[in-house]
């Protein structure tokens, strides 16, 4: 089945991120097929929102995009994931380099709670083999906390533990930590679902500020959020025992205002899911 598409309007978007693309991506847990031939382009400079009812495979799709799916022993996949036309599952592709280029922010903020705010930001450097001296680290901490929209709130307490921050601040700290290894793509799995409305707004602003530099893919159950933060949407659905697939994708305004498929219209208008 081919997904309906609405043309994506890229006029005026000047971006330095990378384009991520899947070709006929299918996924299984054991014999259970959960995704069926998903082909989706997530362009640089564009926030792509993955929407759809619970269990349709959005998180699985996201986890395939930075090779986390393979951490589940029974998991397998078919198809391709291309980062600027290079298959991230291709022979010779280094796992640590792929995960550095494609970062992930999770539903529940997960800073290292006893580690200082500053050390949380630079925690990924060693893991990815990047080196920095003390002055470079200090500059990086300021830069990443600023880009994540947290600098002004924490600049006078960088040595306090990350766990002492509010939930919304912790999530922005996790975004800063992801940014420190200079990713090209940031994947976000329901990053605001554990946060209050004010913190949610702040994260949404951060997403808006980052999108010209980092390609962003976000899973969200909140249709207003998808409409606010994304320029492109993909609607996933798993119908009666079938694996999840993309019913329709394209420009967010048109997906919400003039969807081509009745099921998309029903979902974005809250009639199911
Ligand atoms: N580790 C796992 N082992 C076995 N099956 C899994 C595993 N993770 C997910 N699944 C199954 O894969 C399917 C897709 O799940 P997934 O979490 O990707 O959906 P989702 O759209 O992100 O759902 P939600 O919106 O509720 O988070 C579901 O049928 C789920 O039960």
From TrEMBL:
<dbReference type="GO" id="GO:0016887">
    <property type="term" value="F:ATP hydrolysis activity"/>
</dbReference>
<keyword id="KW-0547">Nucleotide-binding</keyword>
<dbReference type="InterPro" id="IPR017871">
    <property type="entry name" value="ABC_transporter-like_CS"/>
</dbReference>
<dbReference type="GO" id="GO:0005524">
    <property type="term" value="F:ATP binding"/>
</dbReference>
<keyword id="KW-0813">Transport</keyword>
<keyword id="KW-1278">Translocase</keyword>
<dbReference type="GO" id="GO:0035435">
    <property type="term" value="P:phosphate ion transmembrane transport"/>
</dbReference>
<dbReference type="GO" id="GO:0005315">
    <property type="term" value="F:phosphate transmembrane transporter activity"/>
</dbReference>
<feature type="domain" description="ABC transporter">
    <location>
        <begin position="20"/>
        <end position="268"/>
    </location>
</feature>
<dbReference type="InterPro" id="IPR003439">
    <property type="entry name" value="ABC_transporter-like_ATP-bd"/>
</dbReference>
<keyword id="KW-0067">ATP-binding</keyword>
<dbReference type="InterPro" id="IPR005670">
    <property type="entry name" value="PstB-like"/>
</dbReference>
<dbReference type="GO" id="GO:0016020">
    <property type="term" value="C:membrane"/>
</dbReference>
<dbReference type="Pfam" id="PF00005">
    <property type="entry name" value="ABC_tran"/>
</dbReference>
<dbReference type="InterPro" id="IPR003593">
    <property type="entry name" value="AAA+_ATPase"/>
</dbReference>
<dbReference type="InterPro" id="IPR027417">
    <property type="entry name" value="P-loop_NTPase"/>
</dbReference>
<protein>
    <submittedName>
        <fullName>Phosphate import ATP-binding protein PstB</fullName>
    </submittedName>
</protein>
